[in-house]
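Hypothesis: this fold can be encoded by more than one sequence.
Test: take the C-alpha cells below, design a sequence, compare later.
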C-alpha cells in the first residue's frame, strides 16, 4: 500500500480496504528497512504520530487522512528535536510547530519523522550533516528496485542531492507519501531530480515560512515533493494561504487554467552551461519535441544575466546567514559554550564546537561583506544584480509563457566524485539552473523524464511567472502522463 497516491489512499480508506494504523505500521517498517540510507534524523513512534491525528482529526473527511509526511529537520515540530543537521541544535526541542507542518497535521497527515539535510540547509548533496551523509536510493547499475533484505549497500553509492536529500529519499523509497523540504537556491529541486520524483518550489510567499529555521529569509521557501504530480497538486492546495505568523506570506489565488494549444514555451540558452552532460541537454530536447509534437510553440530565448545569479547568491546568502546565525550563541539558542571567561569567548566557543566549517565559513564571509567599508562593493552590488536577474524574467515572460530548462548538470554523482570538490564549489556548480529562480521569487516544478546510461533519473525544470504554480503543475502532469517514467518498485 506504500505506493498508493493520496486519492487512492482516500478511496481505500473509505471502502475500509486499508486502515490508518496499517498504513502507519507499514511505513514505519519501510523506514526501518531503508535506515542505512540515512534519510531520517528522527523517526517518531506510532503513538506520538497517532496522537497528533486524534487531536486534530475530529472530522474524518480530512484530505490527508492516512497520508504519511516526511519533514526536513529544519521545520519545527512541537516537542520534537529539530537539529538542522547540526551539532549546534542537537539538543533543541522545538516549542511550537511550523505552519506548513501544522497544516499537514490538521489535514490528517501522519508526520512520520524528520529528515536529513546539509547542516542548516547549506549544500547541494546532503553529505554535510552532523548525522552523516544521506544515500540516494537509486544506485549506479542496480536500477530501480528497493534493497532486498539481505543485499548490502554497494561500496560506491550516489549522493541524494541537497540540501533536502532526506525528504527526497524518504518519498522516493515509499517511506512517506509526500514530503517537505526548503528551497533557497535549489535544495528541493536538485534532490528531487536526482531521486527521480517531481517537486514544486512555490512562488515566494505562497507557503508560510513560519517555523522554518531561516537560511536566507528573502529567498527561502518551503518546497514539496511527492511520487506523482497529482499528489503535489493536492498537497500544495492544503498548505497554501496567508499565515498571520509570517508577514511575507500572501493570499494569492493561483489561476490554473492552461490552454495547451496556445502555450508558448521558451528554452533559455544560458542554462546549458559548461560542464553539463549531454544526457541533461538531451532530456530537455526530448521534452521540447514532446511539446512541439502536440502543437506547443517552443522557441529559444535569452536570460542574459543568468551567469551572474550564482555570484550574486554567493554574496547575499552569507550576508543573511551572518545575521541569522547570530542567535546561536549558546545562551539564546545552541550548544552551551565552554569558555566562560567573557561573553564573546562564550559565543565563539559555542560556535566553533557547534557549527561545521561550511557554516562558520559563510558567517565569516557574510560579516566581511557587511563591513561598513565593503557594504557598497558587495551587498549593494549583489542587490542590484538580483534586480537584473529578476528583470531578465520579467522581459522574457513578455514573449513566452513558461520556460523549460535542465535542473542539474548531470545525473546523481557518486559520493566519491562529489566530495572531490568542497561545499562552496559544488553549490556554485550544481545550482546554476536553480538559483536564478529564487532570486526572482518565481515558482518552478521539476519532473523526472528519463534514465541516464547509469540507470539514474534525469529531470527537467519548468519555470513560470509569479503565481503560476498551479499552471506549472498542470503542465508537469501533462508531461508525466505522456512519459512513463519508471518509478521505483514499492512492494
Ligand atoms: N546549495 C545552495 C546553498 O548551499 C542552496 C541551498 C538551499 O537551497 N537550501 O546555499
Amino acid at each position: 500500500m506504500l505506493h498508493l497516491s493520496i486519492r487512492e489512499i482516500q478511496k481505500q480508506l473509505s471502502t475500509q480496504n486499508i486502515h490508518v494504523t496499517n498504513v502507519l505500521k507499514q511505513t514505519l517498517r519501510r523506514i526501518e528497512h531503508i535506515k542505512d540510507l540515512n534519510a531520517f534524523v528522527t523517526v517518531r513512534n506510532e503513538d506520538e504520530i497517532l496522537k497528533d491525528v486524534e487531536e486534530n482529526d475530529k472530522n474524518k473527511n480530512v484530505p490527508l487522512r492516512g497520508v504519511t509526511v516526511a519533514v526536513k529537520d529544519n521545520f519545527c515540530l512541537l516537542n520534537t528535536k529539530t537539529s538542522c543537521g547540526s551539532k549546534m541544535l542537537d539538543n533543541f526541542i522545538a516549542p511550537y510547530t511550523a505552519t506548513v507542518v501544522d497544516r499537514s497535521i490538521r489535514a490528517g497527515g501522519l508526520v512520520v519523522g524528520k529528515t536529513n539535510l546539509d547542516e542548516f540547509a547549506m549544500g547541494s548533496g546532503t553529505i554535510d550533516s552532523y548525522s552523516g551523509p544521506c544515500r540516494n536510493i537509486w544506485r549506479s547499475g542496480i536500477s530501480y528496485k528497493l534493497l532486498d533484505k539481505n543485499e548490502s549497500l554497494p561500496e560506491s553509492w550516489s549522493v541524494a542531492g541537497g540540501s533536502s536529500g532526506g525528504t527526497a529519499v524518504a518519498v522516493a523509497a515509499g517511506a512517506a507519501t509526500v514530503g517537505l523540504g526548503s528551497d533557497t537556491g535549489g535544495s528541493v529541486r536538485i534532490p528531487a531530480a536526482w531521486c527521480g520524483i517531481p517537486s514544486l518550489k512555490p512562488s515566494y510567499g505562497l507557503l508560510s515560512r513560519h517555523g522554518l529555521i531561516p537560511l536566507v529569509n528573502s529567498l527561502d521557501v518551503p518546497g514539496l515533493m511527492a511520487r506523482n504530480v497529482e499528489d503535489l497538486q493536492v498537497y500544495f492546495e492544503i498548505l497554501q494561504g496567508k499565515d498571520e505568523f509570517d508577514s511575507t506570506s500572501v493570499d494569492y489565488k493561483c489561476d490554473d487554467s492552461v490552454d495547451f494549444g496556445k502555450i508558448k514555451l521558451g528554452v533559455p540558452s544560458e542554462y546549458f552551461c559548461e560542464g553539463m552532460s549531454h544526457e541533461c541537454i538531451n532530456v530537455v530536447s526530448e521534452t521540447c519535441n514532446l511539446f512541439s509534437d502536440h502543437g506547443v510553440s517552443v522557441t529559444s530565448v535569452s536570460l542574459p544575466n543568468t551567469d551572474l545569479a550564482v555570484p550574486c547568491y554567493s554574496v547575499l546568502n552569507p550576508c543573511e546567514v551572518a545575521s541569522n546565525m547570530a542567535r546561536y550563541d549558546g545562551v539564546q539558542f545552541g550548544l552551551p559554550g565552554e569558555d566562560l571567561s567573557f561573553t564573546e569567548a562564550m559565543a565563539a566557543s559555542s560556535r566553533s564546537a557547534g557549527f561545521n566549517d561550511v557554516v562558520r565559513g559563510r558567517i565569516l564571509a557574510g560579516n566581511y561583506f557587511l563591513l561598513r567599508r565593503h557594504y557598497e562593493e558587495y551587498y549593494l552590488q549583489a542587490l542590484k544584480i538580483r534586480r537584473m536577474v529578476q528583470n531578465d524574467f520579467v522581459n522574457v515572460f513578455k514573449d513566452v509563457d513558461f520556460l523549460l530548462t535542465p535542473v542539474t548538470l548531470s545525473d546523481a554523482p557518486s559520493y566519491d566524485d562529489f566530495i572531490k570538490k568542497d561545499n562552496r564549489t559544488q553549490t556554485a556548480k550544481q545550482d546554476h539552473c536553480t538559483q536564478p529562480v529564487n532570486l526572482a521569487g518565481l515558482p518552478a516544478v521539476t519532473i523526472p523524464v528519463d534514465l541516464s546510461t547509469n540507470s539514474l533519473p534525469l529531470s527537467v525544470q519548468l519555470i513560470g511567472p509569479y503565481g503560476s504554480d498551479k499552471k506549472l503543475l498542470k503542465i508537469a502532469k501533462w508531461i508525466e502522463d505522456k512519459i512513463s517514467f519508471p518509478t521505483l518498485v514499492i512492494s
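The first helix runs from residue 6 to 14. The pocket of glutamine is lined by residues 121-124, 163, 182-187, 215, 317, 427, 431 (CB under 6 Å).
Hypothesis status: open.
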